[in-house]
Amino acid sequence: MTSAPRDRDIAVVAFAQTVHRRTSEELSEVEMLMPVLHEVLDRTGMKTADIDFTCSGSSDYLAGRAFSFTLALDGVGAWPPISESHVEMDGAWALYEAWTKLLAGDADTALVYSYGKSSPGSVRDVLTRQLDPYYVAPLWPDSVALAALQAQALIDAGDTDEPALAAVAARNRENAAANPHAQLRHGVPQGDYLVRPLRTGDCPPIGDGAAAVILAAGDRARDLCTRPAWIRGIDHRIEAHGLGVRDLTDSPSTRLAAERAGAFERPVDTAELHAPFTAQEIVLRMALRLDDGVVVNPSGGALAANPIMAAGLIRIGEAAARIHRGASDRALAHATSGPCLQQNLVAVLEGEPR
Q: Is the whole model's pTM more than 0.85, yes or no?
């Protein structure tokens, strides 16, 4: 069980992100990241030296060079020596590692950041490196083709249809109109089929971006934030690697992670879902038992901005930010990694009663 014990409550106390763009070719990863780190620290009045633990998420495959995260770490400031770790995953999993560090009492504050530049290459081809190397990768299906398989499975099962998928896309991007950081902040035509049954509008934009959050425990969190977003539970689970042994119309790992995180104990009012493709939101809504009374992706979600390796952390940050400003009392945040919702993380965040 991974729900936090009551005597060691941990909260997200600050969140910052870039204005996500189709390309930031004039900036290095470090130059893109540094303003975000300065902003998240400024929100708490902290300095780098005040952070007990630092954890980052990024992808060497995406950057095209080994140990690329060390360049960003140099920008953060690794001297004098700091307590630091890195995950080759979305920053949501870096947050999970930092949460466990604070939960164990080894730190009281943590800086978590992640970033990704998708613009220099073909994300569809890069993500094939996640596939089973013996049975699936030799067929060379890209990420959009696999998402289309999942969408068609949902349609064949009678769980959705193309107009319903278009409505998901429209609602997310309409929500993004109020999000100054979103890459797509206006209506986007569904367009032509990219891979049937997915049209261009059913797919996420390609872009660059970064995000960062600060975690703090107990009274330290209350000192740093007027209304902390307390992490009441967090868990992550993974599906079988072989796509052929999975039911693509369901997400048992999401359901189990939500159960272990305590998401079903009481209703949530907000859900930030990491669903880069419209059909994946349908799958997640069913797995998480979200009804029409839950506000889903008020930020616009990954259909409005999908910086690889940061989009999951952004879902947690957006949910926390709504609690900080009083727009939500109990929120669910979800992050995913791998093809067709292969690995899923669920966090439940709460604000103190008003």
A: yes
